[in-house]
């Protein structure tokens, strides 16, 4: 009995996931990526007291965010594996960092699950504060490189594919604008004491659009 053609040979290397399947996977990852951040009360903050206070009133959204972020981590894997036959060093580095970033998304989702449990109605929030503070300062050092890879990886991957003619030509500018808006939000939050949420979500939306657009182009661009 012949199995459905899920894998295909690629430039003589071991069978890899087709680029078209990777494109669909990247589109799914892009959607889940943005919504997982959108559902968090204040994406990007590490203030332990604020986190516990904000999450206590939005526990359902936080739990849903953790689920979507875990699914996003899974969706990144086929997208990264589908470009294994590329000759571009930037694409290959992007694929590797995307896989590392998938670990970061999964680990960050566990952080959100932990925050969900630590803000349950029967939990002493004051007792949880020192633990959350340690998780957001000392323990987060291990998580930061993984989370940063979840941004650097897809960016390198998409820009590399664009240079190969297998992605949108202006994707690099989209990433640059997203980075600029994110930095403006961070500076505004520190100097003007305002919430960076709008800036952060806008930057993440542009980042996700760049990934989704690249995924759309990957569907019809064979990897040679």
Question: Can you describe this structure?
Answer:
There is one protein chain. With 224 residues, the chain is mainly alpha-helical. It has 8 helices and 2 strands. It has helices spanning 19-38, 48-56, 59-81, 89-118, 125-136, 140-163, 171-192, 197-218, and strands at residues 8-10, 13-16. The longest helix is centred in the middle third of the chain and has 30 residues, at 89-118.
Give the structure's gist in a few sentences.
The chain is mainly α and 224 residues long.
Q: Which secondary-structure class do the elements indicate?
A: mainly alpha
Average pLDDT score: 87
**Helix-residue proportion:** over 70%
Over the alpha carbons, how many angstroms does the gyration radius reach?
19 Å
Major β-sheet strand ordering: 1-2
Count helical runs: 8
Largest sheet: 2 strands, antiparallel
SSE pattern: EEHHHHHHHH
Low-confidence stretches: 1-15
Which percent range describes the beta-strand content? under 5%
The end-to-end span amounts to: 30 Å
Give the overall form.
globular
Number of strands: 2
Total discrete domains: 1
């Amino acid at each position: 009995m012949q199995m459905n053609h899920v894998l295909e040979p690629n430039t003589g290397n071991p069978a890899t996931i087709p680029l078209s399947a990777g494109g669909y996977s990247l589109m799914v990852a892009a959607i889940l990526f943005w919504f997982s951040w959108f559902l968090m009360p204040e994406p990007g903050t590490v203030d332990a007291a604020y986190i516990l206070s904000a999450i206590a009133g939005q526990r359902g959204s936080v739990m849903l965010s953790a689920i979507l972020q875990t699914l996003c981590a899974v969706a990144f894997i086929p997208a990264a594996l589908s470009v294994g036959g590329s000759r571009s060093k930037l694409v290959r580095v992007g694929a590797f960092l995307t896989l590392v970033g998938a670990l970061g998304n999964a680990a960050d989702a566990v952080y959100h699950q932990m925050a969900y449990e630590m803000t349950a109605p029967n939990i002493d929030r004051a007792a949880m504060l020192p633990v959350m503070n340690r998780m957001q300062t000392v323990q987060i050092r291990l998580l930061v490189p993984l989370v940063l890879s979840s941004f650097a990886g897809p960016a390198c991957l998409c820009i590399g594919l664009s240079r190969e003619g297998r992605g949108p030509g202006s994707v690099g500018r989209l990433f640059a604008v997203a980075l600029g808006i994110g930095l403006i939000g961070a500076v505004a939050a520190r100097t003007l004491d305002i919430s960076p949420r709008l800036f952060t979500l806008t930057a993440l939306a542009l980042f996700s659009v760049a990934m989704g657009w690249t995924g759309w182009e990957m569907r019809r661009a064979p990897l040679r």
